[in-house]
Every structure is written in structure tokens, then in C-alpha cells.
Design goal:
The protein has about 100 residues and is mainly α. The protein has a single domain, classed as Helix Hairpins, CATH 1.10.287. It is about 75% helix and about 0% strand. Helix 1 runs antiparallel to helix 2 and helix 2 packs antiparallel against helix 3. The longest helix has about 30 residues. The protein is elongated, with a radius of gyration of 17 Å.
Length: about 100
């Protein structure tokens, strides 16, 4: 069985839905970041799938966008984890419900 565009879109929608559920339902900042990363992975899968199943051979624009998106996601993860560590050192928790006193 050769996978077609619909299969990739269904997998991407499932991955995005799981990531959205994880980002909205979890209380710990690490799990929220993992959910956001899953949503970015779903978007990358869409970029690659639409590039792969384009009607005519085109330059690898989908691949370039996906690689750029992976680089952005890596930077976002590094900054996000640094912020989580800084908040944990101050409040001794990663529960986002208890972080209501954040001031500059």
C-alpha cells in the first residue's frame, strides 16, 4: 500500500490534536512545551506532505520550510526550558496554576 496525501494529513491532524490536548490540559510547564513541539511536528509533516504530493516537480520548498521550522522549534525549546528552570528555582514548582505572582 502506497501512502497518499490523505494518510499523511490524517496522521498530522491526529498528531496536532494530541499536541493541542497536551498543551491545554496539562498543568506542568514541561508537558505544555512537549505539546507545542508535537503541534510543530504536525505542521512540518504537512509541509513535507504537500511538497511531496505536488502535481509537478518543484524545488524542495517544503523541505526548506520544515528545516527552518525545526531550527525555530529547537530555539523555542531552549528558551522555554531556560524559563522553566528559572521559574522552578524561584517557586520550586513547574505547576502553571501556582505561577500567578510573576512580576518583572
Amino acid at each position: 500500500m502506497t501512502p497518499n496525501l490523505q494518510v499523511f494529513l490524517i496522521v498530522s491532524a491526529a498528531l496536532f490534536s494530541i499536541g493541542l490536548l497536551a498543551a491545554l490540559s496539562r498543568r506542568h510547564a514541561i508537558f505544555i512545551l512537549i505539546g507545542i513541539e508535537m503541534m510543530l511536528a504536525a505542521a512540518n509533516l504537512n509541509f513535507i506532505a504537500f511538497w511531496r504530493f505536488a502535481p509537478q516537480p518543484k524545488p524542495p520548498l517544503g523541505v526548506m520550510i520544515a528545516i527552518f521550522s525545526i531550527a525555530i522549534a529547537a530555539a523555542e525549546a531552549a528558551v522555554g526550558l531556560a524559563m522553566v528552570i528559572a521559574v522552578y528555582r524561584h517557586y520550586r514548582t513547574t505547576n502553571v496554576d501556582q505561577l500567578d505572582q510573576l512580576k518583572g
